[in-house]
User: What shape does this take?
Amino acid sequence: MNDILVETRNLTKDFKVKGKKYIRAVDNVSIKIGRKENLVLVGESGCGKSTLGRLTLGLIKPTSGQILFEGKDIWKMSKSEFKNFRINAQIIHQDPYSTFNPVRTIYQSLSAPLLYHKVVKNRKEAYKKVGELFRLVGLVPVEDFYDRYPSRMSGGQLQRAAIARAISLNPKYIVADEAVSMLDASLRLGIVDLLLDLQKKFKISYLFITHDLAIARYFVLKGGGGGMAVMYLGSIVEIGLGDDIVSKPYHPYTHVLITTTPIPDPELARKRPLPKLRSLEVPRLTEVPSGCKFHTRCPYAEKICEEKVPELREVNGRLIACHFAENFVKGF
Ligand code: SF4
Assistant: This one.
């Protein structure tokens, strides 16, 4: 990766919970996203993926560690540099129904940031630009959408409008946070296709966050590659090229995620050997296990796994946090 757009270095985020307890939502995470490249971030719900995404956008402050955008620490930027960074770093939220102000038309919601950030000079230009955005995201015929209120649009249409808003300021980086998970299955692939199509047109980098391995796999294959990071209880356990990880995981947790992803062929699904987890229960973030956080569930855990935190280290061209990663390179 030559030209890095977004980088986190040893990023940690703690949240205070009831009493004097803290939970560590993001634990010492270092990732890199190249210019015009993607990183797919996968893991179970509640593992810290969204917090990591929000940290990279400067929406919340880290407890420790750094976030660099085009090589600059975002929390050391001047006011004007930070404003410029926020224009270049946008988000598409999971819930398209709560994305827009219900008492404003979609045109009003899309034109306001264009006028505020002076992307357009006046209302006439804003009207034209919003029409272009509608067309780009497939809200056609465009005349039908100017005066629509969010309550009169479907989830798929609203998510397209949310994508239009995210690209309206010509950002370099977009966090797509479970952007298709609330949509009907029939609409999901269309939205992923749209995101990838816009990436080609506008040279965007995505942090594509999902708990759904099938969608992650589709994003990687359709997007022609890119990176993938697997997260468990706030830590990254495996990072590498997405298609390599999907076809041959090295970390026991990634192996579980991939082998439990539903597949459409019932015959293949029946034949597929499922991993024998020691426990189906995901530990709470207030009671994170010692050593390797996955040891309470991992079928391959040994004594050292309870005692020593495995470092994220290079094994066979990938970064893996497992004491026995070399064994799994040969297969599970
Ligand atoms: Fe399993 Fe041990 Fe590897 Fe953790 S370090 S994934 S417990 S084998």
